[in-house]
Amino acid sequence: MDAGFTDEQQLLRDSARGWLERECPMELVRSVLLDGEDVPASFGRGLADMGWSGLLVPPENGGAGLGAVELALLAEEMGRVLAPGPFVASSVVGVSALLAAAQPGAENSSAAHELAAAVADGSRTVALLGQGAPGSSDSLRCSPDGGGFVLDGVIEAVPGVGDVGHLLVPVSVEDAPALLLVDAAIEGLEITRHDYIDRGRRLCTVAFASVKGDADSLLASGEKALAAVARASDLGRVALAAEACGLASRVLEITVDYAKVREQFGRPIGSFQAIQHKCADMLVAVECARSAALYAAWACDAGEPHAHVSACMAKAAASQAAVDVAEQGIQVHGGMGFTWESDLHLFFRRARALYHELGDPSWCREQVARAMLDVGAYSCASHG
What we know:
The chain has helices spanning about 5-25, 25-35, 40-50, 70-80, 85-100, 105-120, 225-260, 275-300, 305-335, 345-355, 360-375; strands at about 125-130, 140-145, 150-160, 165-175, 175-185, 190-195, 205-215, 220, 265, 265-270.
């Protein structure tokens, strides 16, 4: 692994930080996370105009055609400002699964690539149900109906699908895995958004009541469907891990700045060794998590056999670090750290939401253990 960034990658990170600090101020974040307002359409259009909605979409489909390392750099900057919206759900997991599942030469292949192009230009969104985490789509029932299918069932606590236009639904059709593309506005499909600790990533209930689809809705079946879901989920974990690192890094900066000016017993609290140790522990947690996230991104780009293991380890380390650093930052701030006026509780909310998305640390570590006991079962090649 090359530990340095290219000039283009540095430019991406610098431009992302500048743009996000301007276009995603805390006033916008508070309006979404606290007041429950929708994410402004202008913010989504801005992401598309900057080329970030199509970061992973190939150039022939109107995207940037970049990789997981660039994704990690962008996601880290988005974590620093608590950017709301379905970026990871749609522009990372959803579009990756869509492109990986599209059968070359099949009639639905052109439709899948057209949808990917629409995601890249910001006009449409797509999300994956059953993102390789527990409790995803096991309750769905898919029955053959002539040349099509009928879907029934309810999936609880699905993040990031409240504002998307299309759903990719992993199901079992006649005991074989399959991946279906369903319009979110189709008759019989109802998505209910719930209040949540982080309103920027609302949890939803997705209910299917005799939802009918035709044969063209089948994107992939068998091992190709499993591989598409697995690959997209790992890229999502990389993005979430990097986002958690950005969040934790920003909390550390806020905490250190506060420790320099907050006085107790006639001197800044940052001069006390106990506070210095706490900030040092926060820094170590951030840097270790960042290293894990960037390594996982590189492993995905390089097609390493252990890419799945690396993505799960990065997600486990970074999401735990984000929660721990947010808690430590609040403690250094004392009672005011969790007041409504402070921004720290917003970072804590996002950290707690990231903790569970695409598998909490315990679940991710279990996947690592399973992979280590069954060498090769989770190779990148088997992910497509």
